[in-house]
């Protein structure tokens, strides 16, 4: 602990001196807004943690429309902010247009991994690995042998989540029945808890007794209905175990906060290139706390820990949906 | 597909159709009186927020319902003020209400609860609980009728029954009362109503107020019966589907109910079966989602009889030109 403290202190003082000498970092939130209880809020938490620990300041903007993306990037770069951190895959195009104009500014792009730009740190997450672990837990907790997946908008990223989940469930129980549904094909699918509830009820009718929701605001309805109907649910992105204590089996964590915190701590010296945060980097994981302690058996913990280590060591491979745009374990 | 699955889909249909039906009847009153209202969505959203917020704070779902209706009435009043008193463009006023509601709900929610534009989750007492009919459990074993009684008819919240009772109620008010006759007349020929010595403005405000009350109930149903709290933009376009149902039903109450049930059924089937395989031809889920709009366009194009809106709809009434 004392070592940790002194390390933190050293990091903090380093960052302080760096902050005094260099420009402030900037953070651009995606359209969901700063307090979306998941993706953007995690970034906000990471940035606040950095600000609290170091006493540093950062600039931020919540985008309101597509047109503001490039404008916000240029504004921050012109003002000398460094690094400029962006959230979400939709920043890829504006970044590729802007980044070359400001070669001395470092950009950090969360959820973008395919740009060819020397001054951009691109961070992707291995969501399929985290989903694999919660899929294992779902199959172990299920008594009926049927587990459910409810995605938000039908995009490859969400299929990526569902694919890892299905593989995890199949790894525990090869005969497991997986019911996978998407809420819709328009952005309103992220904010339709009523549809989430109906999908949950439909999946329960088909025998599902553990349901994983990767659906933003729609997931609130899924977790609610699962709790009402007395089955288990699995949250996503942030730790959602506390929403219905004792009813949410676990949450698949995507540590956007860590990514943002690390980038801010590194400041203008942030390393550029493409980085993937998987299980080994603790970029994804499963949430264990007091709220779900009674639901998670020692068997489950042991199996998850073993699988985690196997994936890190390369003994187990979780197939990514992106590899050939299809999933070996489930069809959507 | 077995019998129980059909019952479950129909059960889901009833739940999904209820908010559509309430909003559709709300629009029916307003449009029959000559006030086009595309702000149904916004009013529902505002009511959803205030019903959830007040229910969360007070712990009483009934207070929540009242607050939802009140907030929806305020927006209705605004719409009335803009389009009846100041004779503004009704469509623009409706659009403004939608934007206002989308922004204000999240803003107030964030300031009030600090949960990112949500309300806290509601617990028992803050929600409308399902009502179980007498002997529902005991009769569920009876073939055919048992599941229909215990699964389909029983076990909904009181607002569902209220919504379906509102259909004959609306029919009776519109076609069997003096108020209803005048209301329909004011949407067809306000000058004639005025000549008869009846206040056009008063009637139109009354219609807009009824619209507000029904939208308020619809919003409260979404947030406190189906869900346990408010989430940003949770109406998800239901106000517009209700408008489509209204046109589909050609502005008549019974037909409105069947239209809403049909649209609810389409959604329920889409949610239950996703991609439907009809003997080799796969119907993707998107087609089911789009069907309400496609059907409305078909109706508007005049393929299945003509949909003629109230003649004075959309026009502010000016006493003397």
UniProtKB/TrEMBL annotation, chain A:
The keyword Cytoplasm does not apply. It comes from Falsiruegeria mediterranea M17. SUPFAM superfamilies: Periplasmic binding protein-like I (SSF53822). Residues 29-312 form the ABC transporter substrate-binding protein PnrA-like domain. The keyword Protease does not apply. This is Membrane lipoprotein TmpC. Belongs to the BMP lipoprotein family. Pfam families: Bmp. It comes from the Bacteria. Residues 1-23 form the signal peptide. It is a lipid-anchor. Keywords: Cell membrane, Lipoprotein, Membrane, Signal. The lineage of its organism: Bacteria, Pseudomonadati, Pseudomonadota, Alphaproteobacteria, Rhodobacterales. GO terms for cellular component: plasma membrane.
UniProtKB/TrEMBL annotation, chain B:
InterPro entries: ABC_transp_permease (IPR001851). It comes from the Bacteria. The keyword Cytoplasm does not apply. The chain crosses the membrane at residues 12-29, 49-71, 91-109, 155-174, 205-224, 256-275, 281-304. The keyword Transmembrane applies. It is found in: Cell membrane. PANTHER family: GUANOSINE ABC TRANSPORTER PERMEASE PROTEIN NUPQ, SUGAR ABC TRANSPORTER INTEGRAL MEMBRANE PROTEIN-RELATED. This is L-arabinose transporter permease protein. The lineage of its organism: Bacteria, Pseudomonadati, Pseudomonadota, Alphaproteobacteria, Rhodobacterales.
């Amino acid at each position: 602990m004392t070592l940790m403290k002194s390390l933190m202190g050293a990091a903090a003082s380093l960052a302080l001196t760096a902050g005094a000498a260099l420009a402030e970092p900037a953070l651009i939130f995606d359209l969901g807004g700063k307090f979306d209880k998941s993706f953007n809020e995690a970034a906000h938490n990471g940035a606040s943690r950095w600000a609290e620990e170091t006493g540093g300041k950062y600039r931020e903007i919540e985008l309101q429309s597509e047109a503001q993306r490039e404008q916000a990037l240029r504004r921050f770069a012109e003002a000398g902010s460094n690094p400029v951190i962006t959230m979400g895959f939709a920043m890829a195009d504006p970044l590729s247009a802007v980044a070359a104009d400001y070669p001395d500014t470092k950009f950090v792009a969360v959820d973008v991994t395919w740009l060819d730009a020397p001054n951009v740190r691109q961070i992707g997450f291995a969501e399929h690995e985290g989903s694999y672990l919660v899929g294992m837990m779902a199959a172990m907790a299920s008594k009926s042998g049927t587990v459910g997946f409810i995605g938000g908008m039908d995009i490859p990223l969400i299929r990526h989540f569902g694919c890892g989940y299905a593989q995890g469930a199949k790894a525990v129980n090869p005969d497991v029945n997986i019911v996978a549904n998407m809420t819709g094909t328009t952005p309103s699918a992220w904010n339709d808890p009523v549809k989430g509830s109906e999908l949950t009820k439909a999946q329960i009718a088909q025998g599902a007794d553990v349901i994983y929701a990767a659906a933003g605001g729609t997931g609130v309805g899924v977790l609610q209905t699962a709790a009402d109907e007395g089955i288990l649910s699995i949250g996503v992105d942030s730790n959602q175990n506390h929403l219905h204590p004792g009813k949410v089996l676990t949450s698949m964590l995507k540590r956007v906060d860590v990514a943002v915190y690390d980038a801010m701590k590194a400041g203008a010296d942030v390393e550029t290139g493409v980085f993937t945060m998987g299980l080994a980097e603790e970029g994804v994981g499963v949430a264990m706390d007091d709220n779900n302690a009674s639901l998670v058996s020692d068997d489950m913990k042991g199996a998850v820990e073993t699988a985690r280590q196997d994936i890190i060591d390369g003994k187990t491979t979780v197939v990514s949906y992106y590899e050939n745009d299809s999933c070996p374990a489930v069809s959507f | 597909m077995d019998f129980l699955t059909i019952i479950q889909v129909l059960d889901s249909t009833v739940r999904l159709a209820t908010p559509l039906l309430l909003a559709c009847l709300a629009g029916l009153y307003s449009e029959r009186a000559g006030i086009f209202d595309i702000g149904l969505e916004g009013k529902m959203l505002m009511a959803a927020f205030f019903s959830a917020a007040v229910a969360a704070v007070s712990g009483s779902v009934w207070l929540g319902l009242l607050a939802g209706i009140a907030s929806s009435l305020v927006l209705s009043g605004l719409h009335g003020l803009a389009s009846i008193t100041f004779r503004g463009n009704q469509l623009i006023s409706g659009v403004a209400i939608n934007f206002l509601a989308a922004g204000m709900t999240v803003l107030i929610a964030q300031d009030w609860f600090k949960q990112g534009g949500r309300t806290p989750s509601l617990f028992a007492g803050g929600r409308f609980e399902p009502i179980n009919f007498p002997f529902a459990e005991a009769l569920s074993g009876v073939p055919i009728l048992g599941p229909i009684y215990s699964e389909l008819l029983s076990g909904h919240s009181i607002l569902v029954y209220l919504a379906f009772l509102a259909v004959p109620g609306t029919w009776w008010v519109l076609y069997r009362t003096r108020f209803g006759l005048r209301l329909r007349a004011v949407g067809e020929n306000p000058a004639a109503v005025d000549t008869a010595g009846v206040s056009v403005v008063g009637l139109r405000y009354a219609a807009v107020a009824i619209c507000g009350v029904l939208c308020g109930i619809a919003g409260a149903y979404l947030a406190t019966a189906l869900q346990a709290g408010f989430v940003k933009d949770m109406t998800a376009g239901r106000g517009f589907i209700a408008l489509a149902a209204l046109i589909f039903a050609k502005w008549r109450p019974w037909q409105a109910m069947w239209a809403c049930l049909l649209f609810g059924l389409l959604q329920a089937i889409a949610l239950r079966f996703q991609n439907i395989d009809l003997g080799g031809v796969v119907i993707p889920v998107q087609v089911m989602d789009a069907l309400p709009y496609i059907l409305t366009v078909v109706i508007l194009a005049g393929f299945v009889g003509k949909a003629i809106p109230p003649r004075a709809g959309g026009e502010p009434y000016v006493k003397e030109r």
